[in-house]
Design brief:
Keywords: ATP-binding, Hydrolase, Iron, Iron-sulfur, Metal-binding, Nucleotide-binding. By secondary structure, the chain is α/β, with parallel strands linked by helices. Bound molecules: adenosine-5'-diphosphate.
Length: 281
């Protein structure tokens, strides 16, 4: 094996041929960093909790002592800065050449490195009215041109759907595995199943499915009240043909902390979401 096959960053390149080092098995490597594991979190349908699960996994990995980065790949609906309560901050852009810049990610209170289009534009409510190829280009650039440094895990909050943008991520970035997020609704599972088949066609391993908003826990007796479907999370996972990673209830305390931008604090003081990372690490 040549040096270039084993090195994941052009900064580590021992051959002097940085172009060669930028490609590992035809995958694009970030220019400013060394990332050990890239994991995509995907759903196929908006609003099921993909970004929430991405944030929870990132925070749990960080709690376990890993160096973690998050790439907000949901370019037209970026929500990661709000999850981490850093939506008022802006990522720095450092000119490298006449045509190139380097992005300095915003660091959350826990020390998670975050890059999102919403951290690069002036105001977070400014819409992105771009066609697919431009969005794909922006996402690829945030991945390659961010100063990630040494990371154990880079989590990508994947763009919704099975279209062009998700396809580009899976084809061009060295994604090690995928985590699928679903809710217990037949309509959602049907669409999520399409995503599962797409990931399988791309030969990317699936760690499992997180069934989000599975139930509400009764405050009095602790019973699980299934709001959307009587089917169990195991049944849904069987339908999708992937392992069940976790079953998460609707959690109003989590929502409240998200609204206040204090989700990291909430996760730090809770053991509830540890299960999300047990099968990853
Ligand atoms: P997606 O990324 O799939 O579009 P989000 O993660 O943005 O979905 O979640 C959509 C909404 O649902 C957000 O307002 C979020 O706070 C809420 N939400 C997600 N998961 C839960 C949960 N387990 N309990 C309560 N609310 C949740």
């Amino acid at each position: 094996m040549s040096n270039c096959d084993s090195c994941a960053s052009n900064e580590n390149c021992s051959t002097g041929d940085k172009d060669k080092c930028n490609s590992k098995n035809d995958k694009v490597m970030p220019k400013y960093g060394n990332i050990k594991n890239i994991i995509g979190i995907i759903s196929g349908k908006g609003g099921v909790g993909k970004s929430t699960v991405t944030g929870l996994i990132a925070a749990e990995l960080r709690k376990a002592g890993y160096k973690v980065g998050v790439l907000d790949g949901d370019v037209t609906g970026p929500s990661m800065p709000r999850f981490f309560g850093v939506n008022k901050e802006r990522a720095k852009m450092i000119p490298m050449t006449e045509t190139e810049v380097k992005f300095i990610p915003v660091e959350t209170e826990m020390g998670i490195k975050l890059i999102s289009l919403n951290l690069l534009i002036e105001s977070e409510d400014e819409p992105v009215i771009w066609r697919g190829p431009v969005i794909t280009g922006a996402l690829s650039q945030m991945y390659t041109d961010t100063e990630w440094g040494e990371l154990d895990y880079l989590l990508i909050d994947m763009p919704p759907g099975t279209g062009d943008i998700a396809l580009t991520v899976m084809q061009t970035m060295p994604v090690k595995s995928m985590i699928v997020v679903s809710t217990p609704q037949d309509m959602v599972s049907m669409i999520v199943k399409k995503v599962v088949i797409m990931i399988e066609k791309m030969n990317i391993p699936i760690v499992g499915v997180v069934e989000n908003m599975s139930y509400i826990k009764c405050n009095n007796c602790g019973d699980k009240i299934r709001v959307f479907s009587k089917k169990t999370a195991e049944e849904q996972a069987r339908y999708l043909g992937v392992p069940l990673l976790a079953e998460m209830p609707i959690n109003l305390d989590l929502v409240e902390s998200l609204e206040r931008g204090t989700a990291e604090k909430y996760i730090s003081s809770s053991n509830e979401y540890k299960i999300l990372v047990e099968k990853i690490i």
